[in-house]
Design a protein that fits this description.
The chain is built from six helices and five strands; from the N terminus they run E-E-E-E-E-H-H-H-H-H-H. It has about 170 residues and is an alpha+beta fold.
């Protein structure tokens, strides 16, 4: 990893490596990568000696953007179980660090939120998933956060009317 790299840190999102700093921790000098996230201007310090095990990966390239779009446009996964079970299943998907899993979480919870009341926990999870997805797409699409949000919402809304109609029919 080097300065200028765009990477994804699972459960936090994508950012750019802006430097390497040394800090004194418990009397020992430790090196840290400085990661700047584009949303909220957050600065994360990642210990250089622990980077291997934390699931960092490169931001997706342009060839993978269509895969993300397909997930966002696809039909939602059927809601199963209580909100608590859904919450933990979605949390596990976010922890995977896989952008397609993150996109599916954003799609599923967003559509549910537009048609039904969701719990506060699911709302917070939606906010986190949206932040993680948006931060990576900012780099992959080379767009502003507003442009990315609009793109994502348009894709999610693609099947919303169809899903509403099928739910009404099966109720």
């Amino acid at each position: 990893m080097k300065i200028g790299d765009k990477i994804v840190y699972p459960m936090h999102g994508a950012g750019e490596v802006t430097g390497i700093e040394e800090n004194d921790v418990g009397g020992a000098k430790k090196s840290y990568y400085v990661l700047r996230l584009p949303l909220g201007n957050l600065k994360l310090m990642l210990p250089v000696d622990k980077v291997e095990g934390i699931g960092l990966r490169d931001v997706i390239d342009k060839s993978q953007i269509e895969d993300v779009a397909e997930v966002l446009k696809d039909f939602s996964d059927p809601a199963q179980g209580s909100w608590n079970k859904r919450f933990h299943a979605n949390l596990d998907r976010l922890k995977s660090g896989n952008i397609l899993e993150v996109a599916a979480v954003v799609r599923n919870i967003s559509r549910r939120h537009k048609t039904k009341k969701i719990s506060n926990g699911e709302r917070r999870l939606l906010d986190l998933a949206t932040q993680i997805l948006t931060s990576e797409l900012i780099y992959a699409l080379e767009k502003t956060p507003e442009e990315v949000s609009q793109w994502v919402n348009e894709l999610i809304d693609t099947r919303l009317a169809e899903e509403d109609a099928s739910e009404d029919f099966t109720d």
